[in-house]
């Protein structure tokens, strides 16, 4: 297998993609034996799995390699299992948020809603779409575990991996719940927002996948502090970059309309910073527009201006820089295998580079 | 541990209840460390787990005992893990069906909706309740696996158990999806309804838990045909009994309003039989009333009369009797351990006895 040091994600991606495709093909056959009407559900599940940057598998894989693990198929499969967990999180998240699109395509519940409409079935198409998406997400969650267990790694290794694997799932669901709470409490203060990011992004996307890789390689004890020191700041920086792009990103690069997070009213850190820093009049105008689905380009421009002028954008960029530096420093640990260290350094850039 | 042969479910129940309580207490502590606002979510999860007849754990336990397994805590924990899977299924099912009550109490999404209302939070209380219930169900599904893996049984045994454990989860979700399809297609023909029952009830509630017990005891190969021969007819009979109670049951015994399934418009087998057997006028009147949430006592009485007069009720009772007999015959296999055989015979009675 060739390895391009400049692209530690794409190196893992093709192996992970192969594991996902083989696993879904096996399960598709099993489901179609139960009933051919299940095909659209598997199609929707597969479509959701086809997208994505495979960031969590990449961190899991390089966490394993950093612990001295070899490039064997078992770790590709175990890493791929995280994509099924992520697919569940996204499918259910879209139902929870009533988001109709995901990566520029119809969300899973929308796909099934459209199937209902096309088929002329009775009852509410929206209810059907939502119900089907809940079940498809459940399948993804169950299959995540199945693929992990069927990865072919040693039973003892899989048992050692359970501590981060279990924690990861509980934490991401807790983080989502806290996120929902923040939205309805209209809180969105900087501290509260950072806590949600800690669980929903930093631990879930970066730290726990690294811990999993280390644990599978039997190195949880000595390496997890290194991976925490690297993963937590990187994970927050990654989410901050995403939040900044959600407000300032170029639609051509993000695949989402400009200022989409503002239209959705997401209580991200850049919003929290803006609300804490802007003057009273700007703050009121910003709050009034936030979450208005009909925001036009001028309104988005105005809100961007407020976020920039009050220093919220700069504060976020400063945080990203700080966190990126912290992550880099953590990589200086002598415990890490050399090629993995350079891949992990590249992942910092891949996850946090400015694209606007 | 004392063992009352007349009550194989209650024998298992206290051990299973203990495992559930200990596991939830550990996870509650972990969640409260993340944030004290998570307490209502854990309360709702625990409330859902507090109910239930522990039928699936009982079948798993007796499947293990029938295979010669000893009465050790590991099998109680592994059996208890099935209750978390079931809690996920029920919580998500109530969201999917918009059912506001479960066992006479508010459904999980209703509990969280009420929390939203009491707290005066912003946004839609119904959306919050639904979103929170999706996440709480996800937690239950993840925890089911965690408890299974942490049961303390040997790693090799747990690996052997994965085949039925994995199949069970895929089948129940597929069964739920097919059930949703039947509802919106307005199908509900006898054959289609029996297929849903096969996956959603017979395999999920009885056959797979028995298979799991046998596999954990290293006896999947020789015992699973026996358990299939016993479990599939019993599972259908169990669901049929439930369906009959949903139409004819006494509210004092079922904990649900009389004729609740008719009000909800559930396409159960007794409904399918009625629609196939009743005369044109009765059929039309039955269909018109089916699914009307405002059905009064007279209308329920009239529908019961139709189901009885056309022979649908008798046909269901005949099926139950046939299936019960088939299950009993399967128990004559010489492969089963003696005390388990008598417990499994008692479970037939417990699961299918007339209560109306």
UniProtKB/TrEMBL annotation, chains A, B:
Obligatory cofactor(s): Mg(2+)
Gene3D superfamilies membership: Farnesyl Diphosphate Synthase (1.10.600.10)
PROSITE patterns noted in UniProt: POLYPRENYL_SYNTHASE_1, POLYPRENYL_SYNTHASE_2
UniProt KW keywords: Magnesium, Metal-binding, Transferase
Recorded family membership: Belongs to the FPP/GGPP synthase family.
Gene Ontology MF terms: transferase activity
Transmembrane segments: none
Any Pfam family the entry gives: polyprenyl_synt
Enzyme Commission identifier(s): 2.5.1.-
Protein name: Polyprenyl synthetase family protein
